[in-house]
């Protein structure tokens, strides 16, 4: 991809952010509106297709994460979830029939996908606690179970489901694409979860009651679902963490501006040494974590290995902890205003709490790291 093409994509992303997001963001947040139409905008401009192109597609996705992440973690979650795991699985493992039916319109932004991994009782430990089952027959499959905490549900046109298909561990899970155009009448029931933050993202629960699907809707080979997911989850963790750190950087910038303009008696809040030193400490925390993230991303670009996958878990763990510390510290400097709805820091604080769970909880990141390092 030429430098001119790369710059053109960035200009298009900037235009969408400034014209289609910024003027409407506060209204969407207040009314809990999920702006799925932005995905269509990205597709119609060719941005989704360009994100798939190597070697620059990943960098385009990071740029998108940075620009949208600094505005809203809810919107970035909605868009990046669409562009991460469902797209990766369709491109790399779906058969030609599914690619023709779903991938082509997906790249144009005409379809929205979701991925259902988390179990009601298993949480992020879906390897050992997957209760959703798939029975394999000669010409069809039968899906039964329940999935929780699914981004873009309701709203997605299809969902790719991880289900137990054998009795082992790693080689006992299968991925299957489930169209959502026959909700309720086809043994599928969806409900939206009300969350304390991320008001511009849809998060839901989906029930499968003996859902029958053609065998062609299986993604890739039987029993290899977990293997297919590993690279996709790693990239989702990196991109999602990149968006979170972009938001954290914005919080620091806005807090510096706030304390420099906030009157306090006959001076400014920033005139207090304790305030300046607190911001210095928080800025250092951010820089250290962000440098580590940039290094892990560099390794991931060079070699998508098991080691870089472990480093991605480390990056999500370290950066999320740093981001929460920084955002909480900045909120304290706002005093009571930090808890008022009209102040952006209040929304950011609520949204950032959700980042501890997406693409695996922080506890699961520790488990991944310890299993591969000890």
Automatic annotation (TrEMBL):
**SUPFAM superfamilies, per the entry:** Acyl-CoA dehydrogenase C-terminal domain-like (SSF47203), Acyl-CoA dehydrogenase NM domain-like (SSF56645)
Q: Which domain of life is it from?
A: Bacteria
- Tell me the cofactors it needs: FAD
Query: What are the annotated GO cellular component locations?
Result: cytoplasm
Q: Which GO terms describe its molecular function?
A: acyl-CoA dehydrogenase activity; flavin adenine dinucleotide binding
- Could you tell me the keywords of this UniProt record? FAD, Flavoprotein, Oxidoreductase
What the entry lists under CDD domains is as follows: ACAD (cd00567)
Q: Which InterPro entries match?
A: Acyl-CoA_dehydrogenase, Acyl-CoA_DH_CS, Acyl-CoA_Oxase/DH_mid-dom, Acyl-CoA_Oxase/DH_mid-dom_sf, AcylCo_DH-like_C, AcylCo_DH/oxidase_C, AcylCoA_DH/ox_N, AcylCoA_DH/ox_N_sf
Tell me if Flavoprotein is a UniProt keyword of this record. Answer: yes
- Every Acyl-CoA dehydrogenase/oxidase C-terminal domain range: 224-372
The Acyl-CoA oxidase/dehydrogenase middle domain extends over 114-211
All copies of domain Acyl-CoA dehydrogenase/oxidase N-terminal, residue ranges: 6-110
Q: What does the record give as its pathway?
A: Siderophore biosynthesis; mycobactin biosynthesis
- What GO biological process term is on the record, naming one? fatty acid beta-oxidation using acyl-CoA dehydrogenase
The record, for PANTHER family, names: LONG-CHAIN SPECIFIC ACYL-COA DEHYDROGENASE, MITOCHONDRIAL, MEDIUM-CHAIN SPECIFIC ACYL-COA DEHYDROGENASE, MITOCHONDRIAL-RELATED
Primary role = Catalyzes the dehydrogenation at the alpha-beta position of ACP-bound acyl chains. This results in the introduction of a double bond in the lipidic chain, which is further transferred to the epsilon-amino group of lysine residue in the mycobactin core by MbtK.
Per the record, the similarity remark reads: Belongs to the acyl-CoA dehydrogenase family.
Q: What is this protein called?
A: Acyl-[acyl-carrier-protein] dehydrogenase MbtN
Tell me which species this is from. Thermolongibacillus altinsuensis
């Amino acid at each position: 991809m030429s430098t001119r093409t790369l710059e053109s994509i960035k200009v298009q992303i900037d235009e969408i952010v400034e014209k289609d997001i910024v003027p409407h963001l506060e209204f969407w947040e207040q009314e809990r509106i999920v702006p799925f139409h932005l995905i269509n905008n990205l597709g119609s401009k060719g941005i989704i297709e360009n994100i798939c192109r190597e070697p620059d597609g990943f960098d385009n996705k990071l740029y998108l994460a940075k620009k949208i992440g600094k505005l809203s973690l809810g919107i970035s979650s909605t868009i990046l979830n669409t562009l991460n795991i469902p797209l990766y699985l369709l491109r790399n493992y779906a058969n030609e029939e599914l690619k023709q039916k779903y991938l082509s319109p997906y790249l144009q932004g005409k379809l929205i996908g979701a991925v259902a991994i988390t179990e009601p009782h298993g949480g992020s430990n879906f390897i050992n606690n997957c209760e959703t089952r798939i029975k394999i027959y000669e010409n069809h499959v039968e899906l039964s179970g329940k999935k929780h905490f699914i981004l873009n549900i309701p709203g997605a046109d299809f969902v790719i489901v991880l289900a137990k298909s054998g009795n082992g561990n790693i080689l006992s899970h299968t991925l299957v694409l489930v169209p959502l155009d026959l909700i309720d009448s086809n043994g599928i029931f969806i409900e939206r979860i009300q969350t304390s933050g991320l008001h511009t993202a849809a998060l839901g629960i989906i029930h499968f009651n003996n859902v029958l699907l053609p065998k062609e809707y299986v993604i890739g080979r039987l029993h290899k679902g977990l293997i297919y997911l590993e690279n996709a989850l790693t990239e989702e963790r990196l991109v999602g963490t990149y968006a979170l750190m972009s938001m954290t950087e914005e919080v620091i910038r806005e807090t510096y501006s706030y304390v420099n303009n906030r009157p306090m008696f006959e001076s400014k809040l920033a005139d207090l040494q304790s305030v300046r030193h607190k911001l210095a400490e928080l800025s250092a925390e951010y820089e250290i974590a962000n440098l580590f993230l940039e290094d892990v991303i560099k390794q991931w670009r060079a070699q998508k290995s098991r080691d870089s996958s472990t480093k991605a878990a480390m990056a999500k763990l370290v950066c999320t902890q740093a981001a929460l510390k920084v955002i909480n510290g900045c909120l304290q400097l706002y005093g009571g205003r930090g808890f008022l709805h009209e102040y952006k820091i209040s929304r950011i604080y609520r949204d950032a709490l959700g980042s501890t769970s997406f693409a695996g909880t922080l506890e699961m990141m520790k488990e991944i790291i310890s299993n591969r390092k000890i």
